[in-house]
Design goal:
Helix 6 packs across helix 7, helix 11 (356-370) packs antiparallel against helix 12 (375-388) and helix 14 (419-433) runs antiparallel to helix 15 (437-449). The chain has 466 residues and is an alpha/beta fold. It is 44% helix and 16% strand. Bound molecules: adenosine monophosphate (AMP) and zinc ion.
């Protein structure tokens, strides 16, 4: 069975062939760390996590790189307005560096709660300013750039394939189309073409920015798009396999990344471009600017597990919009709870056995994820496995499927308890049976020292790792 992935560039679901199998280079655009992320952002990161897990499940060796945008993303898409980091700093009375540090940490913490596998390289724009300057120099040497009073710009008319990622279905968010029609944003009169974008912005005269660097063109800071090109090339090479983001990145950010990278190298940048659709709330894209956005912490305060949200994301294909509501989250929560209760019961009571029936269902699970990450279909195979297989088979199936689902269905290492831990657990069981609570408590402490936490429930003694 072949993995097929939808490629925004070819507008079709194509058989996936990496450049140098089994290695796969994967670049996913990371967050701008000026505020908390909302669950809409995390829908995109969950989709990318499923992609990475699927590739690894199918035997690929994935080098996953993600950037952290900690400078240069301006409040307007037209390279105007303030730097989002400085806006965050003014809002909270902190420095831009403190803001970046704080929201990078909250992103990393949230990612753990969602069980997102950490990228192998998590790289900050501010740590790669020399690489960005070098890339602008390369573009300058090839005649793609010009200077205005506020920065160095990329001349999009010099790159004939400009906008090749954008198709008519993206026109509802099409910056390119909007600007050509002159409708969406004010056009900087110094730009040669409305679609030209900043590679380097000068610090405004007479002001000292918190984040600024010297460059051959003057003191300033990099434009937003250049960081991804510079860092992707540094860690993955000039041409690599897959580049991802949310659909809003198609018309501007990714379009500009392609223009500046392919302009500089003369080679294709990423072979596959994959984009996750929006999470909607009240029929509109969930967005920080629209107010009313929901953070993961808001859900936790309401008593949800972040993995309830992860499970909700699997209810729709990643290329379809998904409506967020608490009713939908409640349904996801109860679906996940029944699956998890079942998984934990069979993990306690059975050893996994990979029978022919298990293999057949795992093949169908693989078929679903190989069909452009069809998670709704994959979940329906999971339901079938839970209905049809005996406990040992379910155990084996769920252990495998959860490598992609990432729902922590079976307590980690359920099968790998050290013999001395098993002995202590059994001793505690008998101590409780004999109502020797002092001994049971002492055993609880000994187990805690070994990283095993005990909970006494009406169904008996349960354990989990710390
Ligand atoms: P940003 O920090 O704005 O660059 O956004 C981080 C990621 O979240 C990007 O890949 C965006 O495309 C994605 N994103 C933003 N809003 C949504 C949404 N409502 N639904 C899904 N993804 C989103
Ligand atoms: Zn990017």
């Amino acid at each position: 069975m072949e993995l097929a992935l939808f490629n925004t560039l070819t507008r079709s679901k194509d058989p996936f062939k990496p450049i140098a199998p089994p290695k796969v280079g994967l670049y996913t655009c990371g967050p701008t760390v000026y505020n908390y992320l909302h669950v809409g952002n995390y829908r995109t990161y969950v989709f990318e996590d499923v992609l990475r897990r699927t590739l690894e499940f199918l035997g690929f060796d994935v080098l996953h790189v993600m950037n952290i945008t900690d400078v240069g993303h301006l409040t307007s898409q037209a390279d105007e307005g303030e730097d989002k980091m400085e806006v965050g700093a003014a809002r909270e009375g902190k420095t831009a560096w403190e803001i970046a540090d704080f929201y990078t940490k909250t992103f990393v913490e949230d990612s753990k709660l969602l069980n997102l596998i950490p990228p192998k390289v998590l790289c900050k724009a501010t740590d790669h300013v020399p690489e960005q300057i070098d890339l602008v120099k390369r573009l300058e040497a090839k005649g793609f750039t010009y200077s205005t009073s506020d920065g160095v710009y990329f001349d999009t008319s010099k790159f004939p394939a400009y906008g090749k990622l954008v198709s008519s279905e993206h026109t509802f968010i099409s910056f390119v189309g909007g600007l050509k029609a002159g409708a969406r944003v004010e056009v900087n009169p110094e730009k040669r073409n409305p679609t030209d974008f900043a590679l380097w912005k000068f610090s405004p005269k007479g002001t000292k920015r918190q984040m600024e660097w010297p460059s051959p063109w003057g003191v300033g800071f990099p434009g937003w798009h250049i960081e991804c090109s510079a860092m992707a090339m540094k860690y993955l090479g000039e041409t690599f396999d897959i580049h991802c983001g949310g659909v809003d990145h198609i018309p501007i950010h990714h379009t500009n990344e392609i223009a500046q990278t392919e302009g500089a190298t003369g080679k294709p940048f990423a072979k596959w471009w994959m984009h996750g659709e929006f999470l909607l709330m009240n029929n509109a894209k969930m967005a920080k600017s629209a107010g009313g956005f929901i953070r993961l912490q808001d859900l936790q305060e309401k008593g949800y597990d972040p993995l309830d949200y992860r499970y909700l994301c699997f209810q729709a294909h990643y290329r379809k919009q998904l409506d967020f509501s608490l009713a939908a989250l409640d349904a996801a929560k109860s679906g996940l709870k029944s699956l998890r209760d079942r998984a934990q019961l069979i993990a306690r009571e059975s050893k996994p056995a990979r029978t022919k029936d298990v293999e057949a269902l795992l093949d169908r699970f693989k078929e679903a994820i190989s069909d452009d990450l069809n998670m709704p279909q994959a979940l329906s195979v999971v339901s079938e496995a839970v209905k049809k297989l005996p406990a040992e088979g379910q155990h084996a199936f769920l252990l495998e499927a959860d490598k992609v689902l990432g729902l922590r269905l079976i307590p980690e290492g359920a099968q790998e308890l050290a013999p001395e831990v098993v002995k202590l657990l059994n001793e505690r069981l008998s101590a409780r049976k004999n109502k020797d609570f002092a001994a049971a408590d002492a055993l609880r402490k000994m187990l805690a020292d070994k990283g095993i936490l005990i909970e006494d429930t009406k169904d008996g003694q349960r354990w989990k790792r710390k």
